[in-house]
Design goal:
0% strand, homotrimer, globular, mainly alpha, 71% helix
Chain lengths: 319, 319, 319
């Protein structure tokens, strides 16, 4: 294992693996996309007055990528950034939820290092079903940290994500406002509440895959429409909190894990609406525990639709 | 897929598939059984002053069966009603838990259409263990709808199932009262609180399988005895709320998934008692979330006992 | 099946299977270890003024071992005690959580008999991933009993485990106090709060495996250090409540399921720290439901680390 680590280092491929890891949060193993994501995170986090989120994202991505080198011998997968994306998200989430003291940074690094272990373990269990763990290691580890902070005095919870956003008593239906809500839905994938970051993310996506960029916009727009029609809280809608999970569902099912087509487009739209509904349900269910749904609705809906289409293939093969 | 849909339509087998789907709620792919179940639901729902439950059951069964045609090419399975039973139960549950406005009917149809997708996905994941998803797609989708209704203003929760029933301060132990409690346990499989419906369901079962009818009575009777001995609330006992999951456990383990025999009878009785205890536990655990256990205790107990007997066969085979 | 039962009885191997079953709680299929564990439980339970815990442990071990004979034909596994350890723990837990009336003893025996059924079912589902159910059948069945007791009047909850322990306003850092906290962490594996029992358990472990005894001490010591550094409640620390799950993680990953080495030692230490953190999280999450985490953190962490190292082997093999 340590030999691998040395080999990887000697090839100086770590910067590439880290950048790809950041890009993989939206399924894009492109160095430039990853770098632009990082730029977007830094701009958005400075705009919100929390630059530690940008620093956290980089720290998390590097820690997780290094740990991935130690636990897995497959350097090709590694370079494609598969071990870095959960760490990147942990790095965005921890400075958002915890006071930025030494314990927070220690926890951020420790949990980022754990993320490839959990990811590899879950992938191993899920491989029989032809699905993978998506961003659920990030979700589970962040839930554990938020819950554990209530048992352990030295890790201090600060405002939850919704508190750090502006409060909206009503929605405006001008084209500009709708565009802002929609862009924030995309920036919230990295827990950033900024329409400028949303634009940067779309450009970053388009560099690697124009279809992914289009599906991100469709995902956020459909989620926005659905949450308005269902009567969700104005505040959550205006800050893009119903958008980020559906954006990932849209890219995953519309683009990454399937071929284009009318049938697939209809399925993906149904999955996007389902993600919004599931998020509404999980928000209520997780409220007593004081934890946010994060990207769990995206993971669950994507698994169900992938499993359901796999079974389809099986039957077709046996005919 | 659309070709399948056309083929299915041209064979005019949809009415058969829908009726079988209603029958499959209690594992009976018989057209007459399904039709009698529907009659029982309508009579019971009118008796309770909520005819929309009957209309919901039919709408759910048709929606889910149609969606099943679109997602699965296997017409034989389809005709046997395997895609309809979760939709039927969703159709009974939604008008019970939500105000009967346009959003409720929209949600009822949308969730019924999702039910074969979730069912197929879960079956695919569970097939390696030789079990299937039973009625858990209905349970999960109904939980999601009830929880989501608290996030989305436009779907309105009304009384929970226990409120729509008569309040009992004590139990009567005359033969007639015991029979009524027992029959309501059977009618509650479709969320109906009516002993007349219970009798119709037993007749419907007996038409397809006399063993299934007998196990339904044994299941409800054993559950009644267990819940009285353990000291459950009179109200829940008198309205059959401890009966419906054990009835399904009894039919599944006593009849559908096993051959008759002394050994199997003892195992099934233990499973029935376990279902009652698990339901008591789940009622308490789910209370803070405001969701009822529905048929989850039946699913969990049946999975455990099936998995446990499968392993048994494996060892026997390898000897 | 009944033939098996007779064969097993005629060989008079039941006492050996029961003793091994008690030893298997800490993964030691040694008769003397099991007997010493039982002595430690009795001494500790008498010290705490609750001798029924000792009697419960023996009753649970015997009930589960007998039930195991009935459901599994493999006498070699059976003699090694694989069906007894969940029953032993149920036998320790029920008199701790419930008033010692007839219903408690009935429930203790019924749930102990169910434990091999659940264990076999879960093992069957998990076998594809090369993991087994560890002590999760004990955890799940005890959770169900505690929750169900709130639905059923005849099973009465008494003090939870933390109430039966002494209250500590601060920690003492003398060598003696540290040793006592550490030893209680080991005795709490069987829900016993006694440093004398802790010493007996270490001796019992050392008889079967010196490595296991050393890992038990490392596990409890590392957990103690971690919980102090993270700022856990003094009371929980002083009574060993952060120690018992990590002790099991330490023995499982450091000794039972792996070969010795530097790499494995580091992994095991990370897993021990992770177990403490997960327990802190689960304590908070389970508080509204009124159930303790028991050994669930040990099971979850051990599964993740085992799954993660399995996948590693797979990749190595395919190279």
């Amino acid at each position: 294992m340590l030999k691998n680590f040395a080999k990887a280092k000697s090839r100086r491929f770590m910067p590439a693996a880290v950048a790809n890891g950041i890009g993989q949060v939206m399924f894009q193993p492109c160095i430039l996309t990853g770098l632009l994501f990082l730029v977007g995170i830094f701009i958005g986090s400075i705009e919100c007055g929390m630059p530690q989120i940008g620093a956290g994202a980089l720290t998390g991505a590097v820690s997780a990528t290094l740990a991935g080198t130690l636990i897995s011998p497959d350097l090709i997968q590694h370079k494609a950034g598969i071990w870095g994306f959960n760490g990147t998200l942990i790095g965005c989430a921890f400075p958002t939820f915890f006071a930025a003291n030494g314990f927070m940074w220690g926890a951020l690094i420790f949990f980022s290092i754990l993320s490839p272990v959990l990811q590899k373990g879950l992938n191993s269990a899920m491989s029989a079903c032809n699905i993978n763990s998506l961003t659920i290691p990030f979700v589970l580890l962040t839930w554990i940290a938020i819950l554990a902070a209530q048992s352990f005095g030295n890790l201090k919870l600060i405002a939850t994500i919704s508190d750090s956003t502006s409060i909206n008593d009503s929605l405006n239906y001008t084209l500009q406002d709708i565009a802002i809500y929609c862009l924030k839905g995309i920036s919230q994938v990295f827990l950033i509440n900024s329409w400028i970051t949303g634009i940067i993310f779309i450009i970053a996506l388009a560099i690697c895959s124009r279809r992914a960029a289009i599906w991100a916009i469709i995902g956020s727009g459909t989620a926005l429409t659905t949450s308005i029609l269902l009567g969700a809280s104005y505040d959550a809608i205006a800050n893009g909190l119903y958008g980020f999970s559906p954006v990932l569902t849209a890219i995953a099912l519309g683009c990454t894990f399937s071929r284009p087509g009318v049938h697939n487009t209809i399925i993906t739209l149904i999955a996007i609406v389902s993600t919004v509904i599931l998020q509404g349900a999980m928000n209520v269910m997780l409220l007593p525990a004081g934890i946010p749904a994060l990207t769990a609705p995206f993971c669950i809906v994507t698994w169900v639709f992938m499993l359901s289409s796999h079974a389809d293939d099986d039957v077709s093969h046996s005919e």
